[in-house]
Amino acid sequence: MATTADIRNGMCIDLDGQYFFIVEFLHVKPGKGAAFVRTKLRNVTTGRILDKTFNAGVKIDEVRIERRPYQFLYKDDMGYNFMNTETFEQISISGELIDGVQYLKDGDIVEVQVHAESETILTAEMPTHVVLEITYTEPGLRGDTATNTLKPATVETGAEVRVPLFIETGEKVKIDTRTGTYVERAK
Q: Which long-range contacts (C-beta less than 8 Å, at least 24 apart) are formed by 105-108?
């Protein structure tokens, strides 16, 4: 059991039977009245943000979360299959638990968050940037680099992203998995 004095960013707590990550918090001591802690919580399963205020000194249930690296192997009807890079144990994770799953390719390493006591999988996080090859895009015209115009392109995982006009089929590009936007050409 922790108290509101132990609250920190990234901490996972159990609130009414659901798990929440603390996104940000602020200890407030008004001139009149008791102190309190204003927090923004992100639901682990749905990703929704919740504003919650705790009175100072209130006990909260801290949940111990472990982060483990897993390598993506393949996808089948059971879900996405991963292998722990340390113990070589294989697990299957449903696509709803993986952020940015449309950019996942064979061999990618994801960070899986596991509830330490019950060994249940909470979420799987992709790396913030991945390098993917463009499999199809319309050809760009010479000299079309003066404006920030974007065109659709299909990457090797089948996802569609918007890229600048000068990008051609076969090039490798860096993509932000959180927003799905083009970052730069891969070197």
A: 105/72, 105/130, 105/132, 105/156, 105/157, 106/72, 106/73, 106/74, 107/71, 107/72, 108/71, 108/72
| DSSP three-state, residue 97 | helix
Q: What is the pLDDT of residue 143?
A: 62
- Structural domains in the chain, sorted by start: 2-62 (2.30.30.30), 65-125 (2.40.50.140), 129-185 (2.40.50.140)
The model's pLDDT over 23-64, given as tens digits with 9 standing for 90+, comes to 999 999 998 889 999 999 998 877 789 999 999 989 999 998
pLDDT value at residue 165: 85
pLDDT beyond 80 at 113: yes
Residue (of 104, 118, 68) closest to 89 by Cα position:
68
> How far does CA 45 lie from the centroid of its chain?
12
**Tokens 């113990």 map to which residue?**
87
Distances 10 to 3, 31, 103 between C-alpha atoms, Å = 15, 29, 25
Burial class (CB in 10 A: 0-12, 13-18, 19+), 101: buried
Residue 77 in tokens = 């009807």
